Amino acid sequence: MKKTNTILPGMVLSLVLSVMAQQLVKLVPTLGSALIAIFLGIIVGNIVGNQAKLDKGTKFSESKLLEVAIALTGLTLSLQSVAKIGLGGITYVVLQMIVTIVGVILIGKWMGYQLDFRLLMGAGNGVCGSSAIATVTPVIGAKEKDKGLAITIVNLTGTLLMIVAPLLSLQWFGNSVMKTSALIGGNLQSVGQVVASAKMVSEPVTEMATIFKLLRVVLLIVVVLVFSKLDTEKTVSSSGEKLATTRKLSVKIPWFIMAFFIGCVLTSTIIDLPATLVTSIKWVSNQFEIMALAAIGLRVNIKHLVKEGPKAMVYGLLVACLQMLTAYALISMLIS
Q: Does the UniProt entry include the keyword Membrane (predicted)?
């Protein structure tokens, strides 16, 4: 009961903002309820000062509700839909991740950042935002201060790309669902940002962009294994000799990804869900998504972002430019 009470304030506020967003979108349909929900969250969150009593509820809404929404989406898609990304799409995701991570590390080195921090930035931008940073932190023995700064910059970069990516895609690829999905799902930092950005375009783009994004999340396992082999931290013995530290390696495939693919398999082979039920599942998933996006907005602390200084923001901006330009080249070559 106590845990529920600590979650309720932030969760209820996220719900209220999601309802408001879905009403306001009737006045400005071009913006979309997802983007309005995030903007409302940012405004309200910074007015109330990111109060601690809202933290657990907004965090729950941001992560758990979005995970449930993605798991439910698996029941509305078939394996044929997942397979649409094809070999070209898979190749694109892998190459885009490699270029992003390596590029982030090199840009950070040029700007004078330590390797631990650059690796966190690489994981966050290349894979899945805050969750990737949190997973990699203990593996490479990074400091909590570096973790916090990396999360801040990655979220700022993702928020920028969330708005810019659909505009660039329209300019570069027109109305191509697959190419737009690849640009958004293959680059944006968090799952929530992918969903919000894709919803600004269309529902088909949201579905395909989510698949591109989930493939990146699955590849987090590979990234963690590679990073665990890097010599990022040293311990100095009493004699002055540097000794490599030993760290515990632990990474699992998130439950919602497994649920998503299991749902796809079941609805493609065994279960034939009635159209009315599929519609209901999509509605519930959509409500959870908008609540989660409102919560993401509530957790954006503008004062914190400004406090980090121009250097960190320039780092994020250079990373965003790298991602978009690389994606344009790869998508043009690999995806039809």
A: yes
